[in-house]
């Protein structure tokens, strides 16, 4: 083991390591071939990368799925400093959002759908935070102190956009910010479904400002207990998918932008797995 001037162990280059046993969150060859073009270093002057980007992404996905801290990453993965560097780099330059959008288009094309959705569903989820969070509030309706995830998904349940705010922000205000952020990016969008918490002035505001219609899915007055509501179950299923990723079981991040990136990572991992399971070998 090599030691630096302070006596701390230094990680060896990935190329000198022996093959390690695979983790459940690791990328398959097909998944990496699908992902690698978006992460490839552009041609031109500059220092060449000395790290294995596939292992960097494997480490990021491991953290997202297992919920561990950065410094608790296994030692057979790249050094956590390298992993964190690329994570924040891809967060700041929008790489994770672009990958999410590209994979969503790939799945829709594979299923014979139009690349851009004509309908979507919006909903929110309140989660607790730790004391590290810079922004947090109290959701009086769900009795949760923390943050709120506002998501917009297509009719397949694939993530279009996520917005993380304090839990005190009303659903209508969060949806308004979400619609403004996606304005112009969904040219075919004609209808968005939402639950009763979005009813009221938001419906009229959307009708004045956007080309789509916000339709409220109401619960039947005679309904008792739990029943699956039309279209509403799609976004609830998406939240169920995200619950499998322990990093999302609670909001551990200081910044809301990092919280959004963790949601995008869970979406990316699931879509990559779907494409791997449904691709036709050549």
Question: Could you characterize what this model shows?
Answer:
There is one protein chain. This protein is of the alpha/beta class and 282 residues long. It has a domain at 116-220 and 228-252: 2-Layer Sandwich (Nucleotidyltransferase, domain 5), CATH 3.30.420.10. The chain has eight helices and six strands. The protein has helices at residues 29-39, 53-66, 80-92, 95-110, 171-182, 201-209, 232-242, 256-278; strands at 119-128, 137-139, 144-154, 159-166, 191-194, 213-216. Strand 3 (144-154) and strand 4 form a beta hairpin. Helix 2 packs across helix 8 and helix 4 (95-110) runs parallel beside helix 8. Mean pLDDT is 89; it is low at 12-16.
Attribute tags:
Nucleotidyltransferase, domain 5; 8 helices; about 280 residues; alpha/beta
How is this fold's topology laid out?
Layout: H1 29-39, H2 53-66, H3 80-92, H4 95-110, E1 119-128, E2 137-139, E3 144-154, E4 159-166, H5 171-182, E5 191-194, H6 201-209, E6 213-216, H7 232-242, H8 256-278
Parallel strand pairs: 1-5, 5-6
Antiparallel strand pairs: 1-3, 2-3, 3-4
Helix pairs in contact: 1-8, 2-3, 2-8, 4-8
């Amino acid at each position: 083991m090599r030691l630096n001037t302070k006596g701390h162990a230094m990680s060896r280059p990935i190329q000198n390591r022996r093959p390690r046993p695979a983790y459940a969150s690791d990328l398959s060859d097909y998944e990496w071939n699908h992902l690698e073009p978006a992460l490839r270093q552009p041609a031109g002057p500059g220092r060449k990368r000395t790290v294995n980007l596939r292992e960097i992404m494997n480490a990021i996905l491991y953290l997202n799925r297992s919920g561990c801290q950065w410094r608790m990453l296994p030692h057979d993965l790249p050094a956590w400093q390298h992993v964190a560097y690329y994570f924040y780099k891809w967060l700041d330059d929008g790489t994770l959002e672009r990958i999410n959008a590209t994979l969503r288009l790939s799945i829709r094309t594979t299923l014979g759908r139009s690349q851009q959705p004509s309908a979507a569903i919006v909903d929110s989820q309140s989660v607790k935070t730790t004391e590290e969070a810079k922004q947090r509030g109290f959701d009086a309706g769900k009795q949760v102190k923390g943050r709120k995830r506002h998501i917009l998904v297509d009719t397949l349940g694939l993530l279009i956009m996520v917005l993380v705010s304090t839990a005190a922000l009303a659903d209508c205000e969060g949806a308004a910010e979400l619609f403004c952020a996606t304005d112009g990016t969904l040219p075919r969008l004609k209808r968005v479904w939402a639950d009763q918490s979005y009813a009221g002035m938001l419906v009229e505001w959307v009708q004045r400002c956007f080309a789509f219609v916000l339709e409220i899915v109401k619960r039947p007055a005679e309904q008792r207990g739990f029943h699956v509501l039309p279209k509403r179950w799609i976004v609830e299923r998406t939240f169920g998918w995200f619950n499998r990723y322990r990093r999302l079981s609670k909001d551990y991040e200081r910044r809301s932008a990092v919280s959004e990136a963790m949601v995008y990572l869970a979406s990316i991992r699931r879509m990559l797995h779907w494409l791997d399971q449904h691709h036709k070998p050549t």
